[in-house]
Request: fold
Amino acid sequence: MQDKLSLMIPGPTPVPERVLLAMARHPIGHRSAEFQAIVARTTEQLQWLHQTSNNVLVLAGSGTAAMEAGIINVLSKGDRVLCGDNGKFGERWVKVAQAYGLDVQVIKAEWGSPLNPEDFRIALEADSNKKIKAVIITHSETSTGVLNDLESINNHVKAHGEALIVVDAVTSLGACNVPIDQWALDVVCSGSQKGYMIPPGLSFVAMGERAWNAYKRSDLPKFYLDLGKYRKSAAENSNPFTPAINLYFALEASLEMMQKEGLEAIFARHERHRFATCAAMEAIGLSLYAASGSGSPAITAVAPKGIDAELIRKVVKNRFQILLAGGQDHLKGEVFRIGHLGFVCDRDILCAVAAIEAALMELGAAPNQMGAGVAAAAAALRSV
Reply:
């Protein structure tokens, strides 16, 4: 059957029908009063989602554009930074920072394990001369399904007194609690194709006052990603460049849906789906890749033993029209990843679990009794 593919990956995520319909509107002038009214409304909605009264700036670009903007607007040539690296996107932070000539000290953890906040404390306390200007981390590591302890790491950054914290919240914003003002987070980056429930094409940078003070000193090259331009135009409900107009229509519609559901309900739904997915995989007899207690509410990485994970993905897609994510880099064939982020409901979880069980049976690799995963997922969804 055509046109039936269901996305169970960590991005792009499923898009609600009302959001798709909003995108189908004719474009309007991006300097018109009508568009300025949409910018004003979405600015307030974005502040609600980010739990901040500070700026949330909208760029036309992927989450990586927000990450790059987050670095180049608050740092200067040769600045020393700590980069957390425990997966593909932690590695990307290191590469972006090195591309701009920053003095990068990497804080590593094995893929599948969370970053150790103590490693950051030790490095920051040893910096008596306050040479470290930023700590850069990924909150939810998409490649491994690990949620890093942002709050604890941020506490050590604040104790340092000089360093900023720059956060990739691409798969955590809209899936779990990221209280920017309460935690005094300095720079938080995210992307539209994740918890926002709209297609790829927009990215977001939330900046606090400490970050804007650093912006005044920053000398790294920037033009399109110069957030000062975005801040100035945002004050007039506009954009310094041509914005993605129809994605703004989608953004407004999706944020209205999120506000109607409420932040606490959104976070609880994602946690319920994480719990049910993990329970199902363990009942089937499949190992979870993320270390115990560190699983992300956005995605669960599964490490099947004795069978190529790509074969499971292939059968699930071809037979049941459900797309799971594969392993990245050295994890290709070793893990598959189940996205439960954004516009995902209990039915989607049950269908994905059933498809995985059926695929394992078809491949002659079902370790436990057929139906054990669905039963575990149903029980978990009922109990949480």
In short: The chain has two domains: 17-260, 262-383.
